[in-house]
Design goal:
Length: about 100
C-alpha cells in the first residue's frame, strides 16, 4: 500500500470526548478518516473531557490508597505475570539460538 505524501504546512485540529469503549461505530464514523488524514496532514487531537476519561483511574487510586493489602496483592499478581511472560520469551529465545546454532553446523 502506498502512503500519501504529507501536505506541508497543513495542520488539522480536531477533538473527541470520551464516550465509552471503542466499537465499530467509532471506526467507521471517525477513526478510519483520521488515519487517512494523518497520512496526509499533521494532526493535533484534543480530548474534550479529560476529567471524565481519568475519573475511574483516580477513583481506583483513592481506593488503593486506603487498602495496602490490595496494593501488595496487585503487585504480587503483576510480578507473577511478568515472570511468566519473561520465562516464555526466554524459552523462545533459547529455542531460536539453538535452532540458529544447529543450522550453522
Amino acid at each position: 500500500m502506498r502512503r500519501a505524501r504529507r501536505s506541508e504546512g497543513v495542520i488539522i485540529l480536531t477533538g473527541d470526548g470520551p464516550t465509552g469503549p471503542l466499537h465499530l461505530g467509532h471506526y467507521a464514523g471517525s477513526l478510519l478518516d483520521r488515519v487517512r488524514l494523518h497520512e496526509e496532514h499533521e494532526q493535533t487531537v484534543l480530548v474534550a473531557d479529560l476529567q471524565a476519561l481519568i475519573a475511574p483511574i483516580r477513583e481506583r487510586r483513592e481506593t488503593l490508597a486506603h487498602d495496602q493489602g490490595e496494593v501488595i496483592a496487585t503487585m504480587r499478581r503483576g510480578t507473577e505475570r511478568a515472570r511468566e511472560v519473561a520465562e516464555s520469551v526466554l524459552r523462545d529465545v533459547r529455542r531460536a539460538i539453538v535452532s540458529d546454532h544447529d543450522a550453522a553446523m
